[in-house]
Amino acid sequence: MTVQREETPGQPRSAWSARFLEYGLMWRALRRDRLALISLVIIMIFIAGAIFAPWLAPYPDQGMGKANLGEKLDPPSSAHPLGTDDLGRDLLSRILLGSRPSLSIGLFVVGLAMLIGTPLGAIAGYFGGWIDQAIMRITDIFLSFPALLLAITISAALGASFFNAMLSISLTWWPWYTRLARAQTVSLKEQTFVEASRALGVPGFTIIRRHIIPNVLTPALVQATMDIGSAILMGAALSFVGLGVQLPKPDWGNMLNVARLYFNDGPWFAIFPGLAILLIAMCFNLLGDGVRDLLDPQSRRTG
Amino acid sequence: MAKAEYVIRRLLLAVLVLVGVSIITFVIARLVPSDPVALYVGPRAKPETREAARIKLGLDRPLYEQYLRYMGEVLRGDFGISVRSRRPIVDDLKVFLPATLELVFVSMIFTVLIGIPLGVLSAAFKDGWLDHFSRVFAVVNVSMPVFWLALLMQLLFVRQLGLLPIGGRVSREIAILAPIDKITGFYLVDTALAGNWAAFRDVLSHLILPSIALATYGIGLSIRMTRATMVEVLQQKYITAAWAAGLTRRTVYFKLALKNAIVPTLMVLSLNFVWQISGAMLVEIVFLWPGLGTYLVNAILTIDFPIVVSVALVVTVFYVLSNLFVDVLQAMIDPRVILE
User: CA–CA separation, B214 vs B209, rounded Å?
Assistant: First the structure.
């Protein structure tokens, strides 16, 4: 995000720079929350694993789908630390390469939802009137679908692929950010610095860009941290029903979908990808809780 | 008077939402990239056959007309036919919907019986070992991929311990020896009504694993919610007064405090109820439960699009109606809601 510097010296600096200061303070406080910090470290390890997967995986070609029929469903051993799958592929390599789509779907979904939802909410809250009504009724309609079901339906309509799965989950997710941003905007609008800008004749969209969005950003980012875990779970669910990454490319969800058929002969095939999903979802949830507690000390005492 | 006005406003909103929902499902149905005519008449049909089918399916009419026609049919309970089996979808729904609802109801019982007491005790012994345990338990529950948990349960209780059936709704022996009269479609109710206790036990044993697997998320949510509100309520003066009056712990926690703490939990639970209808899909596939989820996933795999859209529509209508119910109920319990 580039900081706009069109104001004359002496005027208060853009709200964006205040955000960076705030995040620095948040980081200092977060360092004291041990559980959140451990989660953050594990998340970093997972992300590093995903980035360097092709170099870390002991059998990168098997990880990408090359069959190795000589060693079907071998239990964990020194050659294959997590065992092999139904086509003899090294499970560790599959999980490492599968972490790329499995993790990125969480980040993309939340990012896209925020990108669509936050500006819409700011617009609805700032302008009010029929614009507000129209936008908010649309969010009501989207939120009246059970999210998983809507994502599955859209994804089935668009065709099974990683990109479509990502897109369809984002389409179920943005209204939450719209609601959040709208609520924030409505209270911001009444504050003096916004009223002053308005009195000076600054156009609405400029006020939204320069004063509203930066102030809505923090709660939206907190929400995003809390949502990534659920988004990863939903991505895994879609891929589990065959709507995400297509075989032979790996993804934790589609691995589990195959693994359930070989449960008797190779339980490790189902155990490890699922464990990966649980662990990463849990870390994101714990981190999200920690970040929320920072901003809202009330919830720390009770929640 | 404010109450009636609130209920009417809420009803109108629900109608608006339902219309919106039907438009979205209709649009998604139209979005489907594969050619519905080809699905109906087969890929190698003659152009004349295709044209006839196009007219028969109403695809030659303008979009709004197609939408109105579609809505008219849906309102009369006609969801169209499956493009694969050619069976009316509504007949399938009548079989699969009760199966899913039965699973969800039983799992709600587990959610309430496990989640709420753990939340209460967690707040009562705040920062004790039970509190720490149940908070960790809650986080694990909300982070759990349910389909994976379902697999693990099969591994433990079926493969290792051999205690419970691996899947399905009823054993084959029971289906032959003590067949179930389908009265309501809820097998527990049907067998109980008929006094067919062998079948009742069998049905129950099939229900245990899938319903517990399905309950996990709700258990996590209700622990967190109950704990949070209980902690607040326990700080209030009437609780201090109750302690001073020498009332027992059980009365204070489970009668006096819980009564005021339970409303938010109930709200979350009733939303969770509908979440479970869609979450049931993931559990059903693993346990081969013959419900909406299995039906939907098979339809996705065979690209039977009318089924996908119908299931989405039916479940969403449930969702909207139960949201409406919750809002109205909440307004009855707590009149402050109306002011918002």
Answer: 9
